[in-house]
Amino acid sequence: MNRRPVFLITMLCFGFAFFYIPILSMIVYSFNESRLATVWGGFSTKWYVSLFSNRQVIAALILSLKIALISATVATILGTMAGIALARFRKFRGRVLFSGLVTAPLIMPEVITGISSLMFFILLADWIGWPGQRGFTTVTLAHITFSMVFVTTVVQSRMVQADQAIEEAAMDLGSRPWQVLFDVTLPVIFPAIMSGWLLAFTISLDDVVITAFTTGPGATTLPLLIWSKVKLGVTPDVNALATLMVLVVGLGVVLAGILMSRADRRRDADARLAYQANE
Amino acid sequence: MSKAYKTGWFDRKGWSDIIIGLPYVWLVALFLLPFLIVVAMSVATKTPTAPPFSFGGDYPLLNWEGYERVFSDGLYLRAFLTSVVNAAAAMLLCLIVGYPMALGLVRVAPAWRNILLMLVILPFWTSFLLRVYAWMGLMGKNSWFNKLLTDWWNFVVPVDWAVNSIPMMHTNFAVVLVMVYTYLPFMILPLYASLERLDTTLDEAALDLGSRPHQVFFDITLPQSVPGIIAGGMLVFIPAAGELVIPTLVGNSASPMIGRVISDEFNQARDWPMASAVAVALLVLMVVPTMLYSHFQAKSGGAK
Amino acid sequence: MPAAQAEPFLRIEGVSKKFGSFTAVSDVSLTVEKGEIFALLGGSGCGKTTLLRMLAGFEDLSAGRIFLDGKDMAGVPPWLRPVHMMFQSYALFPHMTVETNIAYGLKHEPISKAAKQDRVREMLDLVQLTQFAARKPHQISGGQRQRVALARALARQPKLLLLDEPLAALDKKLREHTQFELMSIQQRTGVTFMVVTHDQEEAMTLADRIAVMDKGQVKQVGTPTDIYEFPNSRFVAGFIGSITSFEASVKGRDGDHLVLDVPALGAVQARDVPGLVEGQAVTLALRPEKLRITKNRPDATNVVEGQVKDLAYFGKDSLYRITLPSGELVQAHAVNANRGEDAARADWDDRVFLSFDPASAIVLAE
Ligand SMILES: Nc1ncnc2c1ncn2[C@@H]1O[C@H](COP(=O)(O)OP(=O)(O)OP(=O)(O)O)[C@@H](O)[C@H]1O
Ligand SMILES: [Mg+2]
Prior knowledge:
Number of helices of chain B: 13
CATH superfamily of chain B: MetI-like
Distance between the termini of chain B: 42 Å
Shape of chain A: globular
Distance between the termini of chain A: 37 Å
CATH architecture of chain B: Orthogonal Bundle
Largest interface: A-B, 102 and 94 residues
CATH class of chain B: Mainly Alpha
CATH class of chain A: Mainly Alpha
Bound molecules: adenosine-5'-triphosphate, magnesium ion
Largest sheet of chain A: none
CATH topology of chain B: MetI-like fold
Number of strands of chain B: 2
Structural class of chain A: mainly alpha
Oligomer: heterotrimer
CATH superfamily of chain A: MetI-like
Number of strands of chain A: 0
Number of helices of chain A: 11
Strand order of the largest sheet of chain B: 1-2
Order of helices and strands of chain B: HEEHHHHHHHHHHHH
CATH architecture of chain A: Orthogonal Bundle
């Protein structure tokens, strides 16, 4: 259509304003001199200084990163296995239950996952004496469980798209099953595994509700720390923390985006060259 | 009969057992079992012991009181109603705002499209909690945003109705607004995916056959994007209905949403059976019907 | 040397494949000689791919046996069979370059690195892709991909190469060119080719022998000439080239000719087919190019009169559709050998005579 979609572009502008004004406002107010977080009292970076000298925040950040790293890695391994199983095994005993188990955590309200995990850990401690104390381990276990299904979804859809004939071709060319796995299957789904890992990592790093239910004394992750501060209202040091987090993530995503689109462009150019040089 | 290798490297006993078995066992132990505990707990009896429940040795073995209260006590019914209304409102608003945005993304020049798409996804990667928090800063009584709205309000309404500030925090309005804000990408992305696939020559064919642009939209574009609308609606409605963080931070504690009720029953009242009964009711009344609806919609859509 | 005595290179014996209750391949028996290009020709869904996959070892057999070079293939997994396959989708490894794709079959072979490199270079040369060796599959064109797939399958020196619709993804011009390239590569390497195709012209161009398949069964096996000139069933006659067919019954024999009673044409003499008995219902099939069109009654054994209903002029030849007195339509080809003979050429609505040799008339019992 050659009419300019004025209405649609207006809505886009409105939508992006809606997306970014709150974040920009938060960033601006992180440089607020005033203690009253919503009233402008001049420019200052003191909240950043106090943030970096806050032991609690640093400890929480380290704990969160540790949990996210471990849980994302385990979740990626388990989730990839499940994705491969669902995409490649036509029939196996209990397939229906398995595919149910892989989708249920995606739609289960977080509160329910939270209370169920907590009751499970308490009862387990009651029955077999483990876990004696909730904290790092229980949070990590819970995170693995609900983030692995995201990995599964990503890997499974990539597997379904991939031409299954390439695995047969490798076998046809003399590779034994395990060689096919490492030579062909894993390299081909590797991008999906990576994005699954990234997804699991951010989900773990971001989680409040399930962490709140499964954690114990002494194991305060960054979101839990923010949660406890934010429940009391808006404070300038949270603004500063938020700004830093938004900047780190924003930069990361923008960089990844640029790299990816550049790779895309190069691939397009290559393809064009190939067709020109052809035949 | 000889062994067939029709599916590939994994089609052998030892391999497949590990690949299926490990995640299977994990999910059964850490997801299914805890969930079954919730179901069992919903018919247990509350006791002052630790852990605070029993399956009472004598009659009645199963205690249905939790469910009876869910369906008779005004608190729970109101909480369910609030949840449905808030989640539905958030879903509709997301659709109203998100649909034109998704359509706009499809129609802008391809050079812009990737950048704009990234801008839609970017908030999704930043912390959920902080996105809620950002609105707390805007909605507070003294914030520039609230002042701006107040000035505008005082300008357009009669003098008698003038207010000092607009009460936004701790209202259902705030809950819906923040839900729309945090869940909007979940609506835009599936809509974009389904709109992008549409064949624009259909539009042109319809225009060619004498339809006006708005008729083309309602006759061609909208019906074909129904799967995207359903997918997006589900992705917004289900988490919104069970939401805990948003109502806790910006909601009205006098009319809590169901997630809040579950959490309070569990943590404050230490009534595990009641919390479990409400949780099961939430699943049965809201999540399962939504899933079934979308399942059958998708099926009938696919059959057409 | 009579073929029946020596063990054929590939012997497929009563092979069937069932998917549940559906029979995809039904009791197929074939033999293929070493160094041959053998084509499996048939419509979509007739079981060609399934038969190839059984040969490659990806599907097990519901019944029957396969012998390659005298060895029973039952229980031999795909990676141990000296059979390679060129997949319908080419199935190139997207994460490897052209060179590593071709080298993949040698990767797990116990030969020296230098030998592997030589072999890959040889293959790149064979399919003329040396300058594209470092490209990934998505960076080359469809025709180049097809050649990579071929080189990859040949690199490991298979005894038998299975090609599943090797040319289907190419455009018409490239397809014709590639047909000859395939044949020359086959001649140079001496590998036995089994080519699946649904394109009869492709099968006739490429193959030494063709098996025509329908609904999982092999209808006829023979050289392209056999299959075109001596089809054994209405299906084969209709599938390869075009025919006009008539109901007929056997009236008797006149010398070495068979005399048919064809309601639409009258009495027709045809080449004798042994085994037919008097009174038997048969089908008479006529190919358009075997019919002569003349404006005057010719002096021939089989003549029938008709009227030109339609004619399409293609330049080198013309296609006529002629209505017979009985109302049936017959197709006939006329070669436009001489320029400017417009007066002699039949035109719309002209009354014409069709004639054909007894030897050209195909009589089908089935
Ligand atoms: N794994 C399977 N399960 C069930 N049915 C199958 C399977 N594979 C093939 N079939 C059926 O077997 C029949 C033959 O399939 P096949 O792929 O061999 O056909 P084809 O001759 O190669 O056709 P085409 O020319 O379209 O490639 C088809 O009807 C197909 O639906
Ligand atoms: Mg096929």
